[in-house]
Amino acid sequence: MSDVECVVDCQNTLGEGVSWSVDEQKLYWVDIEKSELRCYDPASGKTEVWQTPERVGSFAFRQQGGLLVAFESGLEFWDPASGQRERIQDFEPDLSTTRTNDGRCDRQGRFIVGGMNEADDGKPISNVYRFDQDLSDHLIISNVTCANSTCFSPDGTVMYFADTPTGQIWAYDYDADTGAVANRRVFTDFSDQPGMPDGSIVDAEGFLWNAQWNGYRVVRYRPDGTIDRIVDMPVMNPTCVAFGGKDLDVLYVTTARYLMTPEQIEAEPLSGGLFAVKVDVKGLNEPKFCG
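Below the sequence we write its predicted structure tokens.
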């Protein structure tokens, strides 16, 4: 495994949702708080930035082209190049303090997205939903404060998920035919770990990689939940991870400056940057949204 390198010194306030486009051989991610979608081309080193109409919690590439975007107030089809938007579904319109957060497609191409309660009380009032090919939505997990770590085992029969304030990543049995979840159990507990669970991805060997918010590290967990290896990061807040590159053997990590003091940022000037590390395992070609 090579050293961690800051490949884009983008100074994101809250970099998140990083995803590799196999078709374009480019990396996409968002800065939630700046309402930006960013695209990095490793071949040229250039970055393209689009201003988004609202904050974006997460997104997925579509089989039909363009993006399925979880804007803070709801899901839309959006084409960054043309700016064309099509609203699909409002997100929890009866809950004024929640917005979309972490999301990812399952192995069948259905989109799973969870919410975040931004109120000071931090009550677990948001939920996690599954959006199917016919654009119908289905509640699958209730009573969460900050949805994170959504990802799936290679065969799609296990879904991983974290409600970040609980300090745990959970595993669920996932019905690949129906998209139903069952049998929640603790995958790993952060009580003896330095950070909190943020975004995750599963590699081709079925190991889970998690970005540890406020933990200065990315951790690879075995399928039994024990730690396999630790990637030390030079900044406090890793937020999300994705495999990219021609062989899907580059681990990309978004980071954040959110809630850091000026003194902390001065001590960690690369905070908010996009990082990359060459690893000795490969990722999976993540599915596109099927609708």
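The domain at 5-278 is CATH 2.120.10.30 (Neuraminidase).
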